[in-house]
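Case study 2.
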Amino acid sequence: MKKLFYVLLTGVFITVTGCSKGSENKPPAVKPDGPQTTDPTFTEADATTAYTAFNKYYYNPTKKLYYSTTLQDGLGAIWTQAIYWDMAMNVYERTKAPAQLTMVNDIYQGGFDQYDGYNWDNTTTWFIYDDMMWWVMALARANQITGNQVYLQKAVAGFNRVWNGSYDAVDGGMFWDFQHSGKNACINYPTVIAAMRLYKLTGDASYLTKAKSIYTWAKTNLMDATGRIADHKIGNNAPGYEDYTYNQGTAIGAAMALYNETKDDTYLNDAKLVADYTKTKMGTNGILPAEGDFNEQGVLKAIFAQYIMQLITDGKQSQYLDWVKTNINTGWNNRDKDRNLTWRNYALPAPRGSMQSYESSSIVTFIQLYFKK
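Prediction:
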């Protein structure tokens, strides 16, 4: 998760962004064997294989949450568990398997047990707003899938807690941290997505109003004319532009949520602009960037996958499909074929040693969504 740090140096504040939580010591570098380009195209059977392998090496069936690494010596970061829960829901939507629905409910229970029953007022468990909002998004989606009203109640309570603490009623937008040090893409665009899910579930028009308000602020302050999404904006300073796929992805997801409801082409055009920037300006030779050098950024492309596929399916923008297929095929063909684990750097063979669940998650997510019914 992008975090802002402030360092006072001779009276001047310097802002640094980076991944601050849950990073393990980086393992020894692995010498690549060279890219693999001749393997066959992935199939739906591969989607099952990829998810089975991810669970084998990363899922803790006792905790009902995911380990951070293949060493299985500690759980992954709190916010990334919500992304893995989304993955489980993708698999259920693809397969409709009763056992997978059980898995979806199990992960909710794992989070309940680990994170103080989703007590949003616990400022030790929840120490930044965006961590809460990733879970709010997932809880609302879980209610959509299962119909379990407890999930909706937890989502509503979490959204209200974040809104009341994070929203800037004077200048607009959402602060990412309790200290209100800056407004990041990682809280603003997810707030739009969560609000739109809750609007669809409850019919409460105030969620639609909030979604439109935050989207307008984010588009004005975090998006440039090329579709590039800034990571953060601090006070009256210029936006901090850093290219991260999850910010591009949630911007697409926020625009698509509003487009699906309003059918206003402005939102669809925004989503396409952001997708075009990601495709043409990020990565190399059409392959998405490697993000996540043994840290939580490895999960970013799993978030991007969720929303670029919504643009393709809900927005009927099939021009992005070949690009997505190339990324999936490249990443899957370069997996560790002994363990069937994929890596953050799609263009190179995956390491054979210790790996992180973060960096293994995005191809698994992409391939589930590609075959989702």
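The chain has one domain: 43-370.
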